[in-house]
Every structure is written in structure tokens, then in C-alpha cells.
Amino acid sequence: MKSMTKNQAAQPARRSTLKKLATVSAMTALGASGLLGVLRTALANGKAPGKPGIQHIKGSVTIDNTPATVGMLVKPGQTVTTGPGAEAVYILNADAFMQRENSQVKFGDGSGAAFMRVVTGKILSVFGKSQNTRQIATNTATIGIRGTGCYIDSSAEQTYFCLCYGEAEVIPTGDAKKAEVLVSKHHENAVFINAKGDKMTPTVPFDHTDAELILLENSVGRWPAFVNDGGYGTVGG
Which pTM was predicted? Predict the structure, then answer.
């Protein structure tokens, strides 16, 4: 009889974990029906990646000022904007995003390392492995990422950055000498970068959940490292 790999043997436990997380997160920003519906699809697909484009919409969401619909592609060079009370989940190549309300995110045109700019607002992101470091720009920092899960809240006053897992270089725009390389397995590194972009202050994770990270990773056929290690829970209540 052919023996199971370690990954195959762990699948039932991971699916059980995902179901538990779906229940815990029923009151998250996507709401019970929206989040659980996407999770059910993720469970049904197993490791099969989702199709690129918009996966879920709540409220007013536009792509380059055109009203977005489920299935619409998000392409390099385009801007995704969410209105009050709105939210969008979308896939771009091997990366997946959950963009909160009142947020604007512009993706690079693909000609350089500048992958995306969080003009304003909040976004949870998971990135596939890449040989090259890609950059996320905010109003007060530039963040170099590679195979990472992270949460960003960008405003004129400050940038909040939580490295959920992976490695990232955070460079304050006002003082590049204060750049730091952060490494996380499970939300160990979160920082505020002030309006001048010359100071980073450690803080605690908040406003995003492990369930949401699992949802995004599963939508592109992956599992976060903390699930592989058998741990799960919520971040920031």
C-alpha cells in the first residue's frame, strides 16, 4: 500500500482547523454568509488555486473608476478602490488580497520592482514566492517583500504594518538609515511608521485574523506556515 506523505496525512486536521476558523470569524468584515461561502469554496477546491480576478464584493468597489463585478480581472497598472462599508477579495497571479473599506490600492505596471502602492486605507495580502523582492509603497514607508503575508493600514498620519509571516525590509521614507529587516512566523513583528517617515515603533497585531489569512492562501492553493505547524487562532480579537 502506498504510504501517505506528511502533507497528505495532515490534510484532515487542516480542514478541521479551517472549519473552526470559519466559525470563529463569522462576524468579521466579510460577514457570515460572504466569508463562509468563500471558505466553503476553498474547502471544496482543496489545493486547487482560484481563478484570477475579483472573488468577492461587498458594497461599492471600482477598478479604474469602473464598477467591479465578481470575475473581473485586476491587472498591472490598475487601481482598486473601495467605498464606505465596502470590501473586496481578489487574486492577482499567485497573490491574493482582502481590501477593506475606504481604501485605494494601485498596482505597478510590471516594469519595475514597485509592485503596489497603498494610497490610503487597509489591505491584507498574501504573496507567492518570488526570486525577486517586490516593493509595497505607503505614504511613510517602502516595504520589500518576498513570499509574505502582511496587513497594512496607510494614512497621511502613519503606516501600520504587521508582518504576519515571512520576511520583509521596512524602509521609512524620511530616514532610510532606520530600515529594518523583520522576520515573523506568526505575527511577531508589527510596527507603526510615523508621518515624517523617520521613526518606527513596535506595536501589537490587530484588525485582521488568521482565518482571513487562511482564506486568502487557500484561494491561491496554499496554506500558511502556522497551519502547517498546527497552530491557529485570531489576531486582534
Answer: 0.81
